[in-house]
């Protein structure tokens, strides 16, 4: 076996990742699979059987990030943490893994949009372990790799602009093109697996703000974090203090007419609504996230389903380089995570 892998998180993305990994026959041994309260582990590093992941047989009790890092540090071959959770604590612990030469692959945006101090630790040149996070922006679409390649080869980014949320793309595509209620489309986006575990993180703009923070930082503009620039929220004011997701979803239909008015006003102008993120580095750097109106002839108006579209305007690409396609969903997100793991295997698990 070339590498030992711990998979933390076996929800929508994690389960799809396990299926794709099993089918890929990649030369790795999965030695730990964890959910929040159950952990399956092979203490002697013999490979777990991915065709039969049975949490019912696992003993109760989740492992802490420190326990997982300690276990992987004993691996006789290079080890990789695949974090398929949206957990903040695990994200904050990546430096502990990197310090033990354990590589990290993840679709979890939390670490990369956290403090600059954490960002610097993740990308410290002295780390021997590797960090790949393609699915943190645009799911499996080649956005992080494209931006990294542009920069590594000496291009200069002028602007990055796009629709970066699969959930909000789906909502505005569906809601904008029919008379369906806003709350019904939000519910459907959740059922389709596009939303964050808590869909309010999509609706309040924070998920897009996290992605824009990551893109801005990779382009060299080290914004302090996702709350350091203007972000529009689609959460009705009276629902901001609602505690549970269930109560929030139950209350949302009361505000359908407000959202319908926004849509109908845009329609009356011959326009449509889109939720966009922008990084502009042409003068004083600026970053923003919010709802904008677009002419129906604009490429952003013609998206389908959960499509994302990202336009990079650079010195070499004054007519922007555009990446477009499904930007959320279990299979397309897992594909980005697996492609990252394959890169780590190809590099032998170390820099
Ligand atoms: N869904 C999508 O389209 C996309 C998702 N992502 C990202 O992928 C990640 C996963 O999303 P998704 O699969 O939809 O989320 P889910 O809620 O379906 O799954 C999350 C999984 O993480 C587990 N988990 C949470 N906390 C811990 C912990 N402390 N220790 C161990 N396991 C834990 C949960 O355990 P349990 O099963 O016990 O609840 C669950 O299995 C998120 O970071 C999301 O932002 C990125 C791009 C697109
Ligand atoms: N909730 C996110 C999932 C991918 O990052 C989205 O809708 O884009
Ligand atoms: Na991506």
From TrEMBL:
Positions of the Aspartate/homoserine dehydrogenase NAD-binding domain = 9-129
InterPro entries hit by this protein:
Asp/hSer_DH_NAD-bd, Bifunc_Aspkin/hSer_DH, HDH_cat, HDH_CS, HDH_short, NAD(P)-bd_dom_sf
* Catalytic residues in the record: 211 (proton donor)
What pathway does the annotation place this protein in?
Amino-acid biosynthesis; L-methionine biosynthesis via de novo pathway; L-homoserine from L-aspartate: step 3/3; Amino-acid biosynthesis; L-threonine biosynthesis; L-threonine from L-aspartate: step 3/5
Broad EC category? oxidoreductase
Binding site residues for L-homoserine: 196
Which molecular function term from Gene Ontology is one that the record holds? NADP binding
The record's similarity note reads: Belongs to the homoserine dehydrogenase family.
Q: What does this protein do?
A: Catalyzes the conversion of L-aspartate-beta-semialdehyde (L-Asa) to L-homoserine (L-Hse), the third step in the biosynthesis of amino acids that derive from aspartate (the aspartate family of amino acids), including methioinine and threonine, the latter of which is a precursor to isoleucine; production of homoserine leads to a branch-point in the pathway as it can either be O-phosphorylated for processing to threonine, or O-acylated for processing to methionine.
In Swiss-Prot or TrEMBL terms, this protein is called Homoserine dehydrogenase
The species this protein belongs to is Wickerhamiella sorbophila
